[in-house]
Amino acid sequence: MLNLSEATIVVFIVCFFCMILLTLGVVMIILENEQGKVKRIKTLIQEWDNKRGHDKCWYYPEIFEDIAKVVNVPLINNQPCVPRTDFRNNCQIFEAGIYSKND
Prior knowledge:
By secondary structure, the protein is mainly alpha-helical. 71% of the residues lie in helices and 0% in strands. The protein is elongated and about 85 Å long.
Protein backbone atom coordinates (compact mmCIF):
# COMPACT_ATOMS: atom_id res chain seq x y z
CA MET A 1 0.00 0.00 0.00
CA LEU A 2 1.16 3.50 -0.86
CA ASN A 3 2.07 5.49 2.23
CA LEU A 4 1.70 9.23 1.58
CA SER A 5 2.17 11.92 4.16
CA GLU A 6 -0.56 14.47 4.80
CA ALA A 7 1.68 17.20 3.35
CA THR A 8 2.08 15.24 0.09
CA ILE A 9 -1.68 14.75 -0.20
CA VAL A 10 -2.33 18.45 0.49
CA VAL A 11 0.25 19.48 -2.13
CA PHE A 12 -1.32 17.08 -4.63
CA ILE A 13 -4.83 18.45 -3.99
CA VAL A 14 -3.67 22.06 -4.22
CA CYS A 15 -1.81 21.35 -7.49
CA PHE A 16 -4.84 19.48 -8.86
CA PHE A 17 -7.18 22.40 -8.15
CA CYS A 18 -4.67 24.91 -9.51
CA MET A 19 -4.54 22.97 -12.77
CA ILE A 20 -8.35 22.96 -12.93
CA LEU A 21 -8.49 26.72 -12.32
CA LEU A 22 -5.77 27.37 -14.89
CA THR A 23 -7.59 25.25 -17.47
CA LEU A 24 -10.87 27.04 -16.75
CA GLY A 25 -9.14 30.39 -17.10
CA VAL A 26 -7.73 29.45 -20.50
CA VAL A 27 -11.14 28.18 -21.63
CA MET A 28 -12.78 31.43 -20.48
CA ILE A 29 -10.23 33.51 -22.41
CA ILE A 30 -10.86 31.45 -25.55
CA LEU A 31 -14.64 31.77 -25.15
CA GLU A 32 -14.44 35.53 -24.61
CA ASN A 33 -12.29 35.86 -27.73
CA GLU A 34 -14.76 33.82 -29.78
CA GLN A 35 -17.71 35.79 -28.40
CA GLY A 36 -15.94 38.97 -29.45
CA LYS A 37 -15.54 37.59 -32.96
CA VAL A 38 -19.21 36.62 -33.16
CA LYS A 39 -20.22 40.08 -31.93
CA ARG A 40 -18.01 41.74 -34.57
CA ILE A 41 -19.47 39.52 -37.32
CA LYS A 42 -23.01 40.35 -36.20
CA THR A 43 -22.11 44.06 -36.34
CA LEU A 44 -20.71 43.70 -39.87
CA ILE A 45 -23.85 41.94 -41.05
CA GLN A 46 -26.09 44.52 -39.37
CA GLU A 47 -24.12 47.35 -40.98
CA TRP A 48 -24.73 45.75 -44.37
CA ASP A 49 -28.42 45.22 -43.61
CA ASN A 50 -28.80 48.88 -42.63
CA LYS A 51 -27.62 50.05 -46.06
CA ARG A 52 -30.36 51.50 -48.26
CA GLY A 53 -28.57 52.64 -51.41
CA HIS A 54 -26.63 51.07 -54.25
CA ASP A 55 -24.27 49.60 -51.63
CA LYS A 56 -27.05 47.18 -50.56
CA CYS A 57 -26.43 45.21 -53.77
CA TRP A 58 -25.78 41.48 -53.40
CA TYR A 59 -22.20 42.01 -54.53
CA TYR A 60 -20.63 43.33 -51.38
CA PRO A 61 -17.20 41.74 -51.02
CA GLU A 62 -16.03 44.00 -48.21
CA ILE A 63 -18.34 42.39 -45.64
CA PHE A 64 -16.98 38.94 -46.46
CA GLU A 65 -13.39 40.19 -46.45
CA ASP A 66 -13.96 41.77 -43.02
CA ILE A 67 -15.60 38.61 -41.67
CA ALA A 68 -12.73 36.53 -43.03
CA LYS A 69 -10.28 38.79 -41.17
CA VAL A 70 -12.24 38.45 -37.92
CA VAL A 71 -12.13 34.65 -38.03
CA ASN A 72 -8.63 34.46 -39.58
CA VAL A 73 -9.67 32.83 -42.87
CA PRO A 74 -7.20 33.63 -45.63
CA LEU A 75 -8.94 34.58 -48.88
CA ILE A 76 -6.98 32.94 -51.67
CA ASN A 77 -9.66 32.64 -54.35
CA ASN A 78 -9.24 36.06 -55.92
CA GLN A 79 -11.16 35.43 -59.14
CA PRO A 80 -12.40 38.28 -61.30
CA CYS A 81 -16.04 39.31 -61.32
CA VAL A 82 -18.54 37.87 -63.75
CA PRO A 83 -18.81 39.63 -67.11
CA ARG A 84 -20.44 43.07 -66.91
CA THR A 85 -23.62 41.97 -68.71
CA ASP A 86 -24.12 39.10 -66.25
CA PHE A 87 -23.46 41.48 -63.38
CA ARG A 88 -26.06 43.95 -64.64
CA ASN A 89 -28.60 41.16 -65.22
CA ASN A 90 -28.06 39.88 -61.69
CA CYS A 91 -28.45 43.42 -60.31
CA GLN A 92 -31.78 43.71 -62.12
CA ILE A 93 -32.91 40.38 -60.64
CA PHE A 94 -31.82 41.57 -57.20
CA GLU A 95 -33.59 44.89 -57.64
CA ALA A 96 -36.81 43.21 -58.80
CA GLY A 97 -36.71 40.91 -55.77
CA ILE A 98 -36.20 43.79 -53.33
CA TYR A 99 -38.85 46.08 -54.76
CA SER A 100 -41.43 43.34 -55.32
CA LYS A 101 -41.34 42.73 -51.53
CA ASN A 102 -41.91 46.41 -50.78
CA ASP A 103 -44.58 47.21 -53.39
